[in-house]
Amino acid sequence: MAKSIIDISMALDGSTPEWPGDTPFSYRLSVTKKESGSVNIGEFKSSTHIGTHIDAPFHYDENGLKTDDLPLDVYLTTAQVMDVSGRESVQLDDLDELAEGVNAVLLKTVSWPDRTAFPGTWPVFDPAIAEWMKDKGVRLLGVDVPSVDPETSKELPMHHAMNRNERFILEGIVLDEVAPGVYKLAALPLKIRGGEGSPVRAVLYKE
Questions:
Q1: Which of 154, 155, 149 is closest to 126 using CA atoms?
Q2: For this structure, is 59 an active site residue?
Q3: Could you tell me which of 197, 183, 190 has the C-alpha nearest to residue 8?
Q4: pLDDT of 38-89, one tens digit each?
Q5: What angle do CA 148, 151, 153 make, to 5 degrees?
Q6: Of 15, 46, 53, 68, which is least surrounded by CB within 10 A?
Q7: CA nearest 174: which of 127, 100, 113, 87?
Q8: Environment class of residue 82 by beta-carbon count within 10 Å: exposed (0-12), middle (13-18) or buried (19+)?
Q9: pTM of the model
Q10: How far apart are CA 204 and CA 207, in angstroms?
């Protein structure tokens, strides 16, 4: 039976907003088919934390796992989309009952309506969610905003709570048109040696 695939990734082009002060995404043809006689060849430049991406623990912990050390089964798993829209903060009480066999939770805040502009604000996520995830055996948290912590935070309480509990982070997913429920998730990072993050092509599907 064919899979019904839902793309939950942001497109990467010149309109994709970078974190303020970070490296924007750019792409160009460095060699054209006319020039080479056979093929077009492109090149791109980008932050590793643009669009839909994962954070490796090394992003916020000098001793944390790097991108090429990450356990791949975390990003190829069963996920539950939970609708937490309309909240300024997301607490444990806002989460749905966890379905059986779920190893990733994706939070739908619907607080980034214009994906060509960096959002001015987004909900605050309670660090207690990380402890709940560990208790429930949930390894990955996905959010539809640029970060699990506020833009202005230097302490990064949610990032560090996730790291203490050996949980992993997926940011910038697009869930606006996705109904709550259980799906298969694929969001594999690139194998960047020594890296602190990676863009991903994140998709949901059902068998």
A1: 149
A2: yes
A3: 183
A4: 999 999 999 999 999 999 999 999 999 999 999 999 999 999 999 999 999 9
A5: 85
A6: 15
A7: 113
A8: buried
A9: 0.97
A10: 10
Which residue in 49, 53, 59, 159 is the catalytic one?
59
The number of residues in the chain equals 207
Q: Are 173 and 203 in contact (CB under 8 A)?
A: no
> For residue 123, which amino acid is it?
P
Query: Could you read off the pLDDT of 79-115 as tens digits, one per residue?
Result: 999 999 999 999 999 999 999 999 999 999 999 999 9
